[in-house]
Amino acid sequence: MRGFLVGLLVGIVLTVGLGVFALAAVGHTLAVEDPLEKADAIVAISGDAGARTNTAVSLWKQGFAPLIVFSGSAVDPDSVSSAEIMRRDALRQGVPESATLIEPASATTEENASEVAKLMVARKLRSAILVTSPYHQRRADLLFKRSFEPAGLVLRNYPARDLEWDPNLWWVRDPLRSRTLVELAKLAAEILRPAVTTGSHVNEGLDVVVEGEAHRVRDVAKAAAPGQHVR
Questions:
Q1: Which residues fall within 8 angstroms of residue 116, CB to CB, at 6 or more apart?
Q2: Is the dihedral of CA 45, 48, 52, 53 positive or negative?
Q3: Is residue 96 a contact partner of residue 8, using CB atoms and an 8 Å limit?
Q4: What whole-number distance in Å separates Cα of residue 82 and Cα of residue 217?
Q5: Pick from 124, 116, 125: nearest CA to 144
């Protein structure tokens, strides 16, 4: 009987331990991060603006890019855009206005990606460090690469340094647990959605923004998706 109880206890401990390990693995998978290298711009997208803005400003002050692009529309149609609110916060932290750009039209992560890609091509910027919340970084990476790669843009990931979200303990309490679970569902939906649809839409937008580079963009898109008609 004693051996049975010891075995049961060990089994419970192992099961709990494996469960905790799996949940932590999910957190680290979401918070994808690339080695930092200097880039043409730092891109911070709206949402949990405090940590995202602070991280973007920190990267700028360390000299990783000369420019910060803030992206996001207004939550309230009668107020200024989230991108402008983030920029004002950056200015208060010592970033000159000349070192900032805003993209105030996008309301979703997919729109953030396509609109920022257009802006970067128009400004002849070729590389960016993407800053968003850690639990949002993996999906943002997926969507931004769908928009960036056809235009020949390079993306590196750097999650916001958000002290409230721990990749090992995100599942312990709300609202972080709920936000992360919702993000997992959205990520799964994006992975299952054919990327070719988004890529075609973005390519058309880029052609409108930079007419002179249309042929180059089409060539890159065709190389990435052989046999697909690209207008």
A1: 43, 45, 69, 71, 103, 106, 128, 144, 147
A2: positive
A3: no
A4: 30
A5: 116
Q: pLDDT, tens digit, for every residue of 67-126?
A: 999 999 998 888 899 999 999 999 999 999 999 999 999 999 999 999 999 999 999 999
Rg (CA), the chain: 21
Report residue 162: phi and psi, to 5°. -100, 110
Strand order in the sheet with 41-45: 100-103, 68-71, 41-45, 127-131, 154-157
Report field, pTM of the whole predicted structure over 0.85: no
Name 38's Cβ contacts closer than 8 Å, sequence gap at least 6. 63, 64, 65
Backbone angles phi, psi at 95, to 5 degrees: -80, 125
How many domains in the chain?
A: 1
Mean pLDDT over 192-198 rounds to 61
Across 106-179, the runs of DSSP E, i.e. the strands, are: 127-131, 154-157
> If you count them, how many residues does the chain have?
231
Give me the domain span that covers residue 61: 31-162
More confident residue, 202 or 190: 190
pLDDT at 214: 41
Give me the CATH number covering residue 123. Answer: 3.40.50.620
